[in-house]
Design brief:
The complex is a heterodimer. Chain A is an alpha/beta fold. Helix content of chain A is about 40%, strand content about 25%. Chain B: Pfam families: KaiB.
């Protein structure tokens, strides 16, 4: 009964959450940390615990209007202020405005002697006072381990710590406690993770000399949450986490078509080019013009006044700009107009996930319509095939939900074209162009195929791909008896055909002449016959007229004779 | 309990002690009684005890870096020393306050 259960969930009171403001973390936790409850952030040294805690307080104060208390057991308030100043956070100002209160708890074992029973009410009172003085909603305790280092009586500390957690809950403040990672346990004392309602584990892992920061939510009472390890990035904007596994495959699709920049290629793709928001892979061997094709596409995007983001993993932007000038593309002009942005980074600069995070960040900031990755092959140096594939899946997925067209180039290492590219992404992409060398008659020429192009009619022909000073073009290849003809062989064939055409034309004109002559002869014959016929007709007419004439004359004569006879008869009669 | 109770009224003291407590709990009463006993015994007329109840003056907790209660702070003579707990172990308290040599 789905309708009823739906009704029920709306009636039930769900766990209220406090957004952290840390990019991505709120998505993994589906809204933030449990409101009014303690959360533990644990991890080894240098994994970003304090930074995360600071962001929690500062963003709470700035973005959500919730004042916060930062109780530090490690760093002096001044040190902390300096450390976060590099992120553009002005802690002294926030403290003056009463949004943040920093309390440094100093514990020096050499100054302290313990005798008999005690409790940590002093700390509670101090914290309580700090909370009440600014009406804090958020509390950070960084790092509790220092208490254990400064005091000897572990039994008291453990009970007091437990009391602290429940006291924080009673106070109704959302608290974030940081803890050092212990051996085999999440924290040194193995206590905090059990009394916290939410535990976030931070890790800094180095694989093949490449470091990746990872975050995992170990537990979250009363809420669903992402369970994977999510890479995160610490840069000038603080922490950004990338929840990259929202592979729901339910992104909107566009049926709008965009040009590839090459009219001849568009013609091969059903006459209109690629779909907007699709993923395109150009693979090929070295020096087949993959980057040139990518640059053409970038150029075309910028010509449409759309933004394009170009990630180069092999060449520097200056190098690409110079090289593309040679085929008549001025990328510099687009960069100056702010339509094109190029980011060059060696793949080994950071881990795969880090690349993904930084691409993510750039895309979010720049809001491009087209993203180009040139080439993805080099990423293999920092991860295994499956890792690269997983990363690209997430990248394609992300870009598709944002309706961004993405173009990858990939280097095939062997000339034998296999059905799969190295990265195994060919099944993921919507369109796959293959540029390959065709070697014959002592020269190498480039051929281009469309291996696949989802959702459109596309040419099954091999085209010769030529790079000239004027730019790129696609030329039909000749499929003769000797096979595929390209380059000079094609030109020879073209010449041959042109000669043939001239000869044929010549032959044609000769035949025309012949016909004309024949016609003239025939016409002459027809004229003489006509004359003959006319003379016969004339002859016949002549006899006919003569006959008529004689007939007339004879009749005339007879009448005359008859008249003359009558006159003779009357004369004779009177005499008698 | 009174916030501050001065046990002696002399102008200058060799020993200035401050006891931080949080309410009138058995622990704080024990600590104060113990402290008074030790002082009378070893530092007669040389000391001043100031008792601060953090429930009444929570803002004072940060100044002396108080975490635990009860905490005894030796302000004078310097350096500052802190003893936490109910001060039940006399020897430890005396060592902690560095009192022993004065008695001799």
């Amino acid at each position: 009964m789905p309708p009823k259960s739906k009704y029920n969930t709306t009636q039930l009171k769900k766990l209220p959450k406090t957004p952290t403001g840390v990019k991505g973390l709120d998505e993994i936790t589906r809204g933030g940390l449990p409101k009014g409850r303690p959360t533990l952030v644990c991890g080894a040294a240098g994994c970003g615990k304090t930074l995360m805690a600071t962001e929690f307080i500062v963003r709470g104060a700035l973005e959500f209007g919730e004042p916060g208390v930062f109780m530090t057991f490690e760093e002096q308030a001044e040190e902390l202020e300096m450390n976060v100043a590099s992120l553009g956070i002005n802690l002294p100002k926030l403290q003056k405005e009463g949004l943040v209160k920093i309390d440094h708890v100093h514990i020096d074992k050499s100054e302290i002697e313990e005798t008999g029973e005690y409790d940590l009410d002093g700390l509670f009172i101090r914290l309580g006072y700090a909370i009440d003085s600014i009406g804090a909603k958020r509390v950070v305790l960084d790092t509790l381990e220092n208490l254990f280092a400064g005091l000897n009586n572990q039994a008291i500390l453990r009970t007091e710590l437990r009391r602290l957690f429940s006291w924080l809950k009673e106070k109704g403040v959302t608290s974030l406690i940081t803890g050092e990672k212990g051996e085999g346990t999440l924290t040194r004392q193995g206590l905090e993770e059990y009394v916290s309602d939410c535990v976030i584990l931070l890790e800094h892992r180095v694989v093949n000399q490449i470091s990746t920061r990872l975050m995992r939510i170990v537990k979250y009472r009363g809420s669903i949450h992402g369970t994977n390890e999510y890479p995160f990035l610490i840069d000038e904007d603080g922490i950004s986490v990338l929840p990259i596994t929202s592979l729901m495959l339910n992104s909107d699709v566009s049926s709008q078509r965009i040009s590839s920049g090459l009219p001849a290629l568009d013609k091969m793709l059903g006459g209109k080019g690629f779909f907007r928001g699709s993923s395109i892979l150009i693979s090929g061997t070295a020096g087949t013009g993959k980057t040139s094709l990518a640059a053409y596409f970038a150029n075309e995007t910028c010509k449409r006044k759309e933004r394009c983001l170009y990630f180069a993993f092999e060449e520097s932007p200056q190098q690409i700009i110079r090289n593309m000038k040679s085929i008549g593309i001025d990328l510099k002009a687009h960069i100056d107009k702010g339509l094109l942005e190029m980011h060059a980074a060696r793949p080994t600069l950071n881990g795969l996930e880090m690349h993904l995070v930084s691409i993510h960040k750039h895309v979010k900031r720049f809001k491009p319509k087209t993203v180009i990755l040139d080439p993805i092959t080099n990423l293999i140096t920092v991860g295994s095939v499956s890792e690269v594939k997983a990363m690209l899946i997430r990248l394609i997925d992300f870009l598709q939900t944002e309706q961004i067209t993405v173009l990858f180039t990939a280097l095939s290492l062997n000339t034998i074209v296999t059905e799969q590219t190295d990265e195994g992404v060919s099944s993921l992409v919507d369109a796959w162009l293959l540029v390959r060398d065709i070697e014959s008659n002592g020269e190498r020429n480039r051929g281009m195929y469309i291996m696949k192009s989802r959702g459109m009619k596309h040419s099954n022909q091999v085209r010769e791909f030529v790079i000239t000073d004027e730019g790129l073009d696609l030329v039909d290849v000749y499929l003769g008896t000797d096979g595929v003809l390209t380059g000079s062989a094609r030109e020879a064939q073209q010449l041959l055909e042109a000669t043939g055409q001239v000869l044929r034309k010549h032959a044609l004109s000769r035949k025309d002449l012949e016909i004309e002559r024949k016609r003239k002869v025939l016409e002459a014959k027809i004229a003489s016959l006509q004359e003959e016929f006319e003379s016969v007709q004339d002859e016949l007419n002549k006899s006919y007229v003569e006959e008529e004439l004689t007939k007339e004359i004879m009749a005339k004569n007879r009448r005359k004779m008859m008249q003359s006879r009558q006159t003779k008869n009357t004369g004779n009669g009177s005499k008698k | 309990m009174a916030a501050r109770s001065k046990t002696t009224a002399k102008k200058e003291y060799k020993w200035e002690l401050r006891l931080y407590i949080a309410g009138n709990t058995p622990k704080s009463v024990t600590a104060l009684n113990n402290l008074k006993r030790y002082c009378e015994e070893h530092l007669k007329d040389l000391y001043q005890i100031e008792v601060i109840d953090l429930l009444i003056h929570p803002q004072l907790a940060a100044g002396d870096q108080i975490l635990a209660v009860p905490t005894l702070v030796r302000k004078v003579p310097v350096p500052i020393r802190k003893i936490i707990g109910d001060l039940s172990n006399e020897e430890k308290v005396l060592v902690g306050l560095n009192i022993r040599p004065l008695k001799n």
